[in-house]
Fold each of these.
Amino acid sequence: DAGITQSPRYKITETGRQVTLMCHQTWSHSYMFWYRQDLGHGLRLIYYSAAADITDKGEVPDGYVVSRSKTENFPLTLESATRSQTSVYFCASSSSVTPNQPQHFGDGTRLSIL
Amino acid sequence: QKEVEQDPGPLSVPEGAIVSLNCTYSNSAFQYFMWYRQYSRKGPELLMYTYSSGNKEDGRFTAQVDKSSKYISLFIRDSQPSDSATYLCAMSPLQGAQKLVFGQGTRLTINP
């Protein structure tokens, strides 16, 4: 089915471990985004990508690494997880950055770091 | 101080009521204004957007932007239980429109 899928949906890990969250979209959208959603903060942009091999920092990039070797995939890696990175992570994609081409969101990954 | 402020609620109203949701912002460069709806355990989905100032209507929903006051609103008429969700405002400048700035969301419950 066409759309944007995130995996895993739920993840529990320990501090110091590396964890990778996956995002896959089937629309061939140029733009892809990673957000985290926390109580009291709403959605905050971590990284975004305008095309394959082009990525840029958002508001809260520290502690995260992204790559985009293929248009359809945009994995997010926490190199050494910390408790402060416990959050719900959303991936999104869009064909452009104007509101008439909205960002389409996945259903999120709930990440708990113990 | 956050660039976008939104009362997190929760807000609970009876079915059929008119609902008013609001956001204020501090960055005068914001030109695109959006409202997203997020159901529990789901990703946000775009509900409405406006460019610059003015009003926009779509069925039971009306979005208003007052740039002089740096204030945006979403009105829901004849509210339905299916409107129960978290509503997030989002905005961005013309340059750098990919960097949406979200409010923290207002949790709305419509009681039958």
Amino acid sequence: EIVLTQSPGTLSLSPGERATLSCRASQSVSSSYLAWYQQKPGQAPRLLIYGASSRATGIPDRFSGSGSGTDFTLTISRLEPEDFAVYYCQQHSNSFTFGPGTKVDIK
Amino acid sequence: EVQLVESGGGLVQPGGSLRLSCAASGFTFSDHAMHWVRQAPGTGLEYVSSISDNGGSTYYANSVKGRFTISRDNSKNTLYLQMGSLRAEDMAVYYCVRRFNAYDYWGQGTLVAVSS
């Protein structure tokens, strides 16, 4: 099973700042099968990025994804108030596993 | 508009059974593989089970294999999850998810509570 590790566990930032979230896999993941999701309290997750770098429908361009192999990154260029949430990475190359999440909260 | 609406959750005793349903609309249901993902209270996301577009192939997480059965009725645009021998650790919100470019649409979830 591919294990995903996300860092940091919590990221405390102010609106307008840049957020950089990391996802590391225990073995190589095809970029085509790496996704990022956002989840707010009491809501279902929402797909942000698929294929490591493609934005899902309706996702603002302040969200971007990059990476390959075992290291992937989600970047939020300028945090908006609605971006404070938990972010999960997922691989669906070898079965389906999620990382433990990174919480982005207001500093 | 794509909609996935789960139902069937509730309180069940350990060892009991429950069947979840997911009614799909707004897309051609029979064109898509469908998945169940769960989230225990205060924790992260866990893949549970998946089924191919025509129902011919099914897959399960090791944690539920032999206890849960996924199925679908494409004539009714409905996905199911039959859960048996339920344990305390199965307590979670269960999400119905469409797989297309990763998990592109999620239902609102249905809560399964396992307690005596």
